[in-house]
Amino acid sequence: MIFGIKDYWSKDKWTKESLIFDLFVLDQLINDMTNTQILLSAETLNIQSCIDWVMSPESGGIDVFIGTVRNATKGKAVLKLDFEAYEPMAVTEMEKIVQQAFDKWPVQRVLIHHRTGVLQVGEVPVIIAVSAAHRDAAFDACRYIIDTLKQTVPIWKKEAFEDGDIWVAAHP
Amino acid sequence: MKINVLAFGVAKEIFGSSLVSLELTNDATIYNLKYLLEQQYPRLKQLASYMVAVNNEYALPGDTIHERDEIAIIPPVSGG
Question: Can you give the pTM of this predicted structure?
Answer without folding.
Answer: 0.86
